[in-house]
């Protein structure tokens, strides 16, 4: 799927992380990528994260999946909403919704959540800590946006939903199939289905918190520090007051910490691995049979397309001498020369034919074998 009339430069300059924007059906040709029955089937799967929200006059009740098929026939007339997370990981057609938004770096992309609601259904007024494009797939939904929120904003007492205690709309629109509403982080918003068969796709983006980065980066450092890496003072001099921690001592202790934490290359490599870890790492995507380099060479020579798995995450960091660190699903790979060019193309395109020249490069074939073996890419034999 691609946009027909959308100015990326104006959007990034005037709206991205600044203010909401209603985008009336910008697609070349909009077609809802997921059948409602298939959506309901996903909510019944064990490996899929799903929630059902049923509204009453005073409360919202949340049930967590997987759900039995008979649950859908017992929903009654009260407004309800079904939410399924990371649908793009399981349905390739939904994954294509991300492609028009690739002007935002890959490492920022999270997933596509899909909601299906009956008339009046919604999740209530709330705010998120991330950017989101709300794409209307089927039916209609009334969206309202409000003020900028923060950690001091009052919330209702609800363990499952972070609902605003007070919400005042500043703008309101009704979205129809193909329409998009962009909502920046921390902007209050509320969506309510207008009629039945309301399906909305939430293309969400990640933004790591400072506390998250510090905590996980420190965990990485601690795991690799030997116990005998300790403070030393072989040139110790007598002090007038033994109770003083001198300025030099504080500087040396502080340097012990910052010298490790300030290693930019080590941080870049750690972050690439950390950020590229799959959303559902416990799920196995590996092929059932062992991968043989000879067989993959045949695929490449025959022009069989290479396709990224929708659940995999790809990114890279440029290094000196035209080399790159490639990060795929929590793993890092050092790539040079032709292999580096292949790695960059792999991050830019989800489906392409591999240059047959790479079959003669051991480094390139080793990389491809590893990526196929871990289930990150596959050769599209149907093509």
TrEMBL record:
<dbReference type="InterPro" id="IPR046799">
    <property type="entry name" value="ROXA-like_wH"/>
</dbReference>
<dbReference type="InterPro" id="IPR003347">
    <property type="entry name" value="JmjC_dom"/>
</dbReference>
<dbReference type="Pfam" id="PF08007">
    <property type="entry name" value="JmjC_2"/>
</dbReference>
<protein>
    <submittedName>
        <fullName>Cupin domain-containing protein</fullName>
    </submittedName>
</protein>
<dbReference type="InterPro" id="IPR039994">
    <property type="entry name" value="NO66-like"/>
</dbReference>
<keyword id="KW-0560">Oxidoreductase</keyword>
<feature type="domain" description="JmjC">
    <location>
        <begin position="93"/>
        <end position="222"/>
    </location>
</feature>
<dbReference type="GO" id="GO:0016706">
    <property type="term" value="F:2-oxoglutarate-dependent dioxygenase activity"/>
</dbReference>
<dbReference type="GO" id="GO:0046872">
    <property type="term" value="F:metal ion binding"/>
</dbReference>
<dbReference type="Pfam" id="PF20514">
    <property type="entry name" value="WHD_ROXA"/>
</dbReference>
<keyword id="KW-0223">Dioxygenase</keyword>
<keyword id="KW-0479">Metal-binding</keyword>
<keyword id="KW-0408">Iron</keyword>
